[in-house]
Design a protein that fits this description.
The complex is a heterodimer of chains A (235) and B (336). The radius of gyration of chain A is 18 Å and the shape is globular. Chain A is 30% helix and 25% strand. The N and C termini of chain A lie far apart (54 Å). In chain A, the strands form 2 sheets. Chain A has a 6-stranded mixed β-sheet with strand order 6-7-8-3-9-10, with helices on both faces. Chain A is an alpha/beta fold. Chain B has a domain of 227 residues. Chain B has a two-stranded antiparallel sheet. In chain B, helix 1 runs antiparallel to helix 7 and helix 8 packs across helix 10. Classes of the chains: A alpha/beta (235), B mainly alpha (336). At the A-B interface, helix 2, helix 3 and helix 4 of A face helix 8 and helix 9 of B. Chain B: InterPro entries: ABC_transp_permease (IPR001851), LivM-like (IPR043428). Chain B: GO terms for molecular function: branched-chain amino acid transmembrane transporter activity.
Chain lengths: 235, 336
């Protein structure tokens, strides 16, 4: 029987290799319910690979994942039924469908209703574009549509993969407010440090696939290893 | 564990998307076809019936290729499967409804098997697999000649139509009943969750998976639905010709079908109708020209040439196919 301490998503000693490349090296992370956990690191640190492992797009060579204390073998198209939703880097959209239809595809339980889809579109502020095609919208609006498609399933764990990429300062402020008000577990991969520091309760830092720090934004900001990973060492 | 709550109520009144029920165009079409069969001469009724039979397969193919992005060059072979099943059933039981049902079921199973392989393949590899099916299936009929009577094929036993109607009139009714049921079923499938899933898989498989869509399952289902339509079309062709032979389902038939749905407009049932009309009209025009020119050799190639020329012309003028012209106008008016 799982206890309260078991609730949430946990990664235990995950290692992923792509041929000779060690993409993730013994990474462990616990994502407690209601927390916003950030994953940061320089390019190629393994952030997206970590997301791909959680989603079942990449299989770890060793390690395990548990969800609410139970072993979790993720498969991408089953995430939704486990209450996990993910957005992609860039915009993964269905350009042959209207914005409304895009969001309706995210509803997998029960009968998809336009009311639910509109609620998610209003939440992300793009309801007025419901009948437009995504390709007709500016990039930032398209990202909001993708976010609406993730939110419409009312996930208990929301995984955001570089949601601020390509957004301007106002859009990033809006995104920060949204994340703060979501009242759900959020796993965030992001390069925009102001956003990460303002919304996250806890941050994991990866460098060349290795976890080098885990702590609160304040702790991460003052961590020498993190500074070194980002800025390098003085010669 | 906490969950995201949707806003208690949607703050703005969003009008529900209004779409015409498919019944609103299928029922008037049925009445129109019925009326036409009483006014047309027998040969035109036969051609009308042929359009109906073709519509079954083009509708299924346009859903598969247009909505789901799977290119099949083997639908002629699936039609042959349906036609031979109907012939065998008719010659044994002579109950048309049973024969048609069996044809659809057998082709559905065949489509499921091909679909399972197709779901693992993309682009030219998928086209290659279906092309192989188009080549192999007719040769099966030649190989197992005790069952399929080799290249001579099978005659199809059919009860005569009621006294009050001509054979061609009755054939038109049967073929269009099948076509309209097919269009109705596909229209409802395309506008619902399955239709959205097919389009999502076509547009972005990774995003579709993350939205909770079983990509392989959707692709197999799309192939199964499309194969069932091809099986029905094959059965109706057997009813029309009252015989089935491998020569009736050559490789060029599969190519014609693909060209017809592309010219008509991929993914649109109205495009499938245009394609079905072209499949009957273009060979007929080619036949007339060849007859006038007094060259039988010309007739064999002219239809394919016509299709090629029309395909190029339509792709230049309307890359989305002929049906997209109307659709574009609607889109400009804000209706999609």
């Amino acid at each position: 029987m799982s206890t309260h301490a078991d609730q949430g998503l946990s990664l235990h000693n995950i290692t992923v290799r792509f041929g000779g490349l060690l993409a993730l090296d013994d990474v462990s992370l616990r994502v407690s319910p209601g927390r916003v956990v950030g994953v940061i690191g320089p390019n190629g640190a393994g952030k997206t690979t970590l997301f791909n492992v959680i989603c079942g797009f990449a299989a770890p060579q060793s390690g395990a994942i548990t969800l609410d204390g139970k072993p979790f073998k993720p498969r991408p198209h089953h995430l939704n039924r486990h209450g996990i939703a993910r957005t992609l880097q860039g915009v993964g959209q269905f350009n042959g469908m209207t914005v409304l239809e895009n969001v309706l595809t995210g509803i997998r339980t029960g009968k998809p209703t336009e009311k639910d889809a509109y609620a998610a579109l209003e939440q992300t502020g793009v309801a007025e574009h419901a009948n437009a095609y995504p390709a007709m919208l500016p990039y930032a609006k398209r990202k909001r549509v993708e976010l609406a498609r993730a939110l419409v399933s009312r996930p208990r764990i929301l995984m955001l993969d570089e949601p601020a990429g390509g957004l301007d300062a106002d859009e990033i402020d809006w995104l920060a407010e949204l994340i703060k008000n979501l009242d759900t577990t959020v796993l965030l991969v992001e390069h925009h440090m102001d956003l990460v520091m303002s919304v996250c309760d806890e941050i994991l830092v990866l460098d060349f696939g290795k976890p080098i720090a885990l702590g609160s934004p304040g702790e991460i900001r003052n961590n020498e290893k993190v500074t070194e990973a980002y800025l390098g060492t003085a010669a | 564990m906490t969950t995201i709550e949707a806003p208690e109520k949607v703050t703005t009144n969003h009008p529900k998307t209004k779409r015409l029920s498919p019944l609103l165009y299928v029922v008037p079409a049925a009445i129109l076809i019925l009326a036409l069969t009483y006014t047309l001469p027998p040969f035109r009724n036969y051609q009308l019936a042929t359009v109906g039979a073709y519509l079954c397969v083009t509708a299924g193919l346009t859903i598969l290729t247009g909505l789901n992005g799977q290119l099949s060059l083997g639908h002629g072979a699936l039609m042959a499967t349906g036609a031979y099943t109907l012939a065998l059933m008719q010659n044994r039981f002579n109950v048309l409804a049973l024969g048609i049902l069996a044809a659809v079921l057998v082709t559905t199973v065949a489509g499921g098997v091909i679909g399972l392989a197709a779901a693992r393949l993309r682009g030219p590899y998928l086209a290659g697999l279906t092309l192989a099916v188009a080549v192999v299936v007719p040769s099966i009929a030649s190989t197992f000649d005790e069952t399929f009577n080799s290249d001579q094929g099978l005659t199809v036993a059919l009860e005569p139509p009621p006294d009050a109607v001509t054979v061609e009139q009755w054939q038109a009714w049967v073929c269009w009943a099948g076509a309209l049921v097919t269009v109705l079923v596909l229209a409802y499938l395309a506008r619902g969750r399955f239709g959205r899933d097919m389009k999502a898989v076509r547009d972005d498989e990774t995003a579709a998976k993350l939205a909770g869509i079983g990509v392989a399952r959707t692709q197999v289902l799309a192939f199964v639905v499309s194969a069932a339509c091809a099986g029905l079309a094959g059965a109706l062709f057997a009813v029309l010709a009252q015989s089935v032979s491998p020569g009736a389902f050559p490789l060029t038939l599969s190519l014609f079908l693909v060209m017809a749905v592309v010219i008509g407009g991929l993914g649109r049932l109205s495009g499938a109708l245009i394609g079905a009309v072209l499949l009957v009209a273009l060979p007929e025009i080619a036949h007339s020209i060849a007859e006038d020119a007094g060259s039988q050799r010309l007739e064999g190639n002219l239809a394919l040439t016509f299709f090629g020329v029309v395909l190029v012309a339509v792709m230049l003028a309307a890359p989305g196919g002929l049906a997209s012209l109307r659709w574009k106008r609607n889109k400009q008016k804000g209706r999609t």
